[in-house]
């Protein structure tokens, strides 16, 4: 896809998929703001009471840090969201998968706030 390639050259990650809730973070932060926490709270109806729920978390950073710093930050952001979901919705740990997608500084260190996120995709596992 030419559009996606152009975004990557500009240091912009792939945008969230349709049906995904994105939790955005401030630069260098792994703690969500109150507004972003309310987005996590809005998942309650999809999660509570559903024993077959599977959640995939995809954690991203912008391209301003080096790869090691960004990887650590991605892990912390994913852990923040995962812990929130476990604490508030009593989800079993094994129902949540995590993918880390740190940016590198290869794109010239562009800071894009839309890249500082954890995407939350809620699906139901078929039995």
Describe the structure.
Residues 1-12 have low confidence and may be disordered. The protein has helices spanning 2-9, 34-41, 44-47, 67-89, and strands at residues 21-24, 53-60, 96-101, 117-124. A 4-stranded mixed beta sheet has the order 1-4-2-3. The protein starts with a helix and ends with a strand. It is α+β, with helices and mostly antiparallel strands and 127 residues long. Helices cover 34% and strands 20% of the residues. The protein is built from 4 helices and 4 strands.
Radius of gyration: 15 Å
Q: Separation of termini? A: 35 Å
Query: Helix tally?
Result: 4
Structural class by SSE content:
alpha+beta
- By DSSP, the count of extended strands is 4
Strand order across the largest sheet: 1-4-2-3
Percentage of residues assigned to helices: 25-40%
Task: State the major sheet.
Answer: 4 strands, mixed
Which parts are unreliable, with pLDDT below 50 for 5 consecutive residues or more? Answer: 1-12
Labels describing this entry:
127 residues; 4 strands; elongated
Brief description of this entry?
By secondary structure, this protein is of the alpha+beta class.
Task: Write the SSE topology.
Elements: H1 2-9, E1 21-24, H2 34-41, H3 44-47, E2 53-60, H4 67-89, E3 96-101, E4 117-124
């Amino acid at each position: 896809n030419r559009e996606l390639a152009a975004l990557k050259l500009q240091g912009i990650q792939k945008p969230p998929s349709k049906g995904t809730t994105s939790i955005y973070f401030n630069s260098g932060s792994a703690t969500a703001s109150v507004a972003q926490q309310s987005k996590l709270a809005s998942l309650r109806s999809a999660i509570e009471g559903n024993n077959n729920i599977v959640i995939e978390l995809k954690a991203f950073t912008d391209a301003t840090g080096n790869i090691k710093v960004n990887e650590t930050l991605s892990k912390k952001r994913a852990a923040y969201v995962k812990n929130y979901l476990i604490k508030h919705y009593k989800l079993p740990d094994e129902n949540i998968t995590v993918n880390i997608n740190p940016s590198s500084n290869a794109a010239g260190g562009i800071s894009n706030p839309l890249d500082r996120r954890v995407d939350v995709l809620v699906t139901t596992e078929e039995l």
